[in-house]
Amino acid sequence: MEFSGKYHEADFPERYADKHARTLTRRANDRREQALLARCLTVCACSDSLADIGCGPGRFWPTLASTDVPDLYALDVSHAMLSFAREHHGVLGQRFRVAAGSVLSLPYVDNAFETVACLRLLHHFGDRLQRRRALGELARVARNHVIVSLWTDGNYKAWRRARLERRRGRRPYENRHVIPRGVLQEDFTAAGLVVERHFDLVPAFSQWRYYVLGKMDSR
Prior knowledge:
By secondary structure, this protein is α/β, with parallel strands linked by helices. The chain is built from 8 helices and 7 strands, in the order ααβαβααββαβααββ. It has a single domain, classed as Rossmann fold. It has a 7-stranded mixed beta sheet with strand order 3-2-1-4-5-7-6, with helices on both faces. The chain starts with 11 loop residues before the first helix and ends with a strand. The mean pLDDT is 92.
């Protein structure tokens, strides 16, 4: 994927991790996101196995590990990200069984994990067919729940971004996309997933939304 090229750079994981601790606003947002993920995990009531797909530098590993789920897994397309995550988190990082691979073709069997989390990744997929393929893979390897976070519309930040894009004109490539909620609902259904809960980072202001998705065939 075009957007993932920079993630393979040797120094990018450290720069990415530092970005979220650089300012007071970013640190506050990080705490809020960790809290939203914890709420999602409470809804899922996971007790068996948990996978972090597109884990990056392991930013969410402390929250994922706090569940006391015995079997923790993590996957990322970048070996540099995986190495940084294991080293940065020390003993906690050793609890995760890591693998390199793409969300478009996950190297796991069907129903491999009780719960699958895919955070801050799907909004990079502007191509709807690829986004649906990714969601289909997440649903395939999850037995009960899928947790995703991404940009959605219906808030001030999404409105402001749309206005900016209209002013500057269409660019040949966009790295991140605001995905309309109605479109997401259709994508979830196509993947065999149904929305159980959702949480907004800052309601009516932030474009970040966390979804807890259940599998239709497990109901």
